[in-house]
Structures are given as C-alpha cells and as structure tokens.
Write a structure and sequence with these properties.
The protein is an alpha/beta fold. 33% of the residues lie in helices and 14% in strands.
C-alpha cells in the first residue's frame, strides 16, 4: 500500500521492513515518487525533515506539523504511547543551540568539526524511524545565568583580571592567591567575601578528591532566555511531532542553574555540599526510579565527554546500588554524541571513549542509531 498525506509519504508492504531493494522496485513502478527515504524500519522519514537545516536556527510551523502528525498516526494505526507493551525511554542530553550549532558559544564539533550537527541529523532520523517504538522522550536543558562558579566573573587575579575561557582553576592556585573569589559579587549571594573564597577552595578540593575534572571556566553558554538555550530547531520539531503522534508529552528537565556548583550530570551536581555542609544541589532519584519502570533507556546528546558521560556515570552509580542488572536496559547511541574538542586547547576524545568502555563493561549497550535493537 502506498499513500500520501500532507507531504508525508509512507509505505507498508505486508508489514515487512523497507529495504534498498524495495526502494528500487518502487522507484521503477512509481517514477513520479521523489525523495523516498527508506530506512531499516517500516516508518519513513517525513519529507518535511531537511538534514541541511539541522545546523541552523529556524522556526517550524507547529500547527502544520500537528496536523501532519495526527494524520500520520491515523494512517499508520499508531496507538498512544501509554498503551505500549514494551516501554522505551529516549533521553536527550543538552541538545541545545549553544552546543550544537556552529559558531555558537560552546559548539561541540568533536575532532571532525561537524560532530554535533551530524549527530543531530542521525538523531532526528532515529526518532522518525522509530516513532512507533519510542514511548517517552526526556530532553535535558543546560540552564545558566551570569553569576555561576564556572563563569569568569566569579574570579579575579591580583590585578583584577578575570580568567580566560577554558582556564582550569586548582585548589593550590586558590590557596596561593593566584585566583580569588570576586569580592564585588559577594553581596549578590548574601555572603562575606572571605567566605566566598573559602567556598571556592572547598569546591576545588572536593573536585580533586573525587577525581573529576578541575574547575573549568567555560564561555558564557546556555544562558537562560537566550537563543543558545533553546533546543536545536530540527530536534525540537522531531520531539513535537513525536508528542502529537504518540500523545506523549515531551519531558523537559532543567539543570545547571545553581550558582555554586557545576552540573554536568542531570542527575546531580559535581559537589553536593559547601564548607559548612550547606546544600549546593541535590541528587535526583527520578531517573533510577523511571529506569525500573521502562524496558529500555536510550541515551544521546552532548557532550559525550562531559554532560553525557557524567549523567551516565551517575546513573550507573545508582544502578549499582539498586540492581546491577538494570545496566542491561541502557543503550548509548555512540553516533549521536561527540566529545569536547577545542583545537589547540583541549581534546577530551580519549576520556570520553574510556568512559564508554567502562559503561559497556558494566553491561550497558553501545549501539549506533542504525542498529536493529528496538
């Protein structure tokens, strides 16, 4: 059966998967058909998806997409996600303009320079191909304001200069006075400047003891209310389409807005408490709880070396405490994530790969978006 609905071309052939041979056969029988996009499942990628636009910021027409999604669901006989017998949860880590669009603040290009853009092309195609299998989608959003511990404004040297982006600040440098807490912003937090410095030393020492990255000064990025904070347009379009097709609200989770700790992981901050045991952030139990309710969890996003790696690492810690067998439910889309690489400055590729090797040894599955695992 071949049918057309509002710009979406689809095909079902006795319930069998569409393949290259079928593609050629249909092109021969129906020469007027253009832009057929056959993949490894029975669902085709909608014609409105344009891979060339994934690396740009643009507005998609919600009402038009909603109508197409409703028609698509009827055409394919898709049930609401709540009726799925096998429940699949897709978690997208920080797929935002700030990380994924070239020339934005903290673009994750990987070694190729095209990392996040190509990752998101594959990610969108994965979502469209598997609309009938994905029950729930969670999208985390890195969310920052000006005055946070990883921004230059938090520190000054003896001459009053702020550290440059990508500067690592170590506990020893804070003890020596190489860098000090910016006393001019102490009143913003209702603390004395001396306690601000004590907090910085405590924080840097806690990072060092945990074996995590040193305190890094990042360029201002993912700023709340800014264009960089928004989800990538093409990904947002795919999430909206899924939510209407499957009658499943996209779950948006905000992270990273607290001032005195980094929050690479959506599950918890880098440091939980300050020098007087004050709470800097909280460890979120919802993710391990939801993992126990779903049959599989698929994870993708940016950056492989930081927010993705730390989220998976925190989840793995929770898994080990709850039930190590839960690790087998987790699938990491290795072709939909890239590491932080700043040419001539830093390359976290090897660290990211080592983290994924550790996750695999724990029982998690390292897969590609085109693999047959759903």
């Amino acid at each position: 059966m071949i049918s057309y609905l509002d710009g979406i071309r689809s095909v079902k052939v006795s319930g069998k998967k569409v393949n290259v041979a079928l593609d050629k056969e249909l092109r021969g029988r129906y020469p007027s058909i253009r832009k057929w996009k056959f993949m490894s499942t029975k669902y085709l990628i909608p014609d409105f998806f344009d891979a060339e636009k994934v690396g740009a910021v643009w507005r998609f027409p919600y009402e038009e997409r909603a109508k197409q999604a409703r028609d698509w669901a009827v055409q394919h006989g898709l049930q609401p996600a709540s009726d799925d017998s096998t429940k699949t949860w897709l978690m997208l880590i920080d797929v935002q303009n700030t990380f994924c669009i070239p020339d934005f603040e903290l673009y994750v290009g990987g070694r190729s320079g095209r990392g996040a853009v190509e990752d998101n092309v594959r990610l969108c195609e994965f979502i469209y191909r598997n609309l009938g299998s994905i029950t729930k989608i969670t999208a985390t959003m890195d969310t920052h304001i000006t005055m946070q511990v990883f921004h230059a404004i938090f520190f000054v040297d003896k001459e009053g200069n702020h550290p440059a982006p990508y500067t690592d600040i170590h506990a020893s440098e804070l003890h020596e006075g190489r860098w000090t807490f910016n006393s001019a912003i102490a009143s913003q937090f209702g603390i004395a400047p001396e306690y601000g410095q004590q907090m910085m030393i405590h924080y840097a020492e806690a990072l060092q003891k945990s074996g995590k990255y040193a305190l890094t000064i990042w360029p201002y990025h993912a700023m709340l209310g800014g264009i960089g904070h928004a989800l990538v347009s093409s990904v947002a379009e795919a999430l909206f389409f899924h939510s209407v097709v499957r009658l499943a609200q996209t779950d948006i989770v905000i992270k990273g807005e607290t001032p005195f700790t980094e929050n690479y992981s959506v599950i918890g901050p880098e440091v939980l408490t300050g020098p007087m045991d004050e709470r800097l952030g909280t460890h979120d139990q919802r993710f391990i709880q939801q993992l126990q309710e779903f049959d599989r969890l698929i994870i993708a996003g940016q950056a492989k070396s930081h927010c993705v790696a730390w989220t998976v690492s925190d989840l793995l810690d929770d898994i080990m405490l709850a039930d190590p067998q839960l690790a087998k439910k987790v699938y990491l889309l290795e072709d939909c994530t890239s590491p932080v690489v700043v040419p001539g400055v830093v390359d976290h590729t090897d660290a990211a790969d080592a983290a994924y090797e550790r996750f695999a040894k724990a029982g998690m599955h390292i897969v590609k978006s085109t693999d047959e695992f759903l």
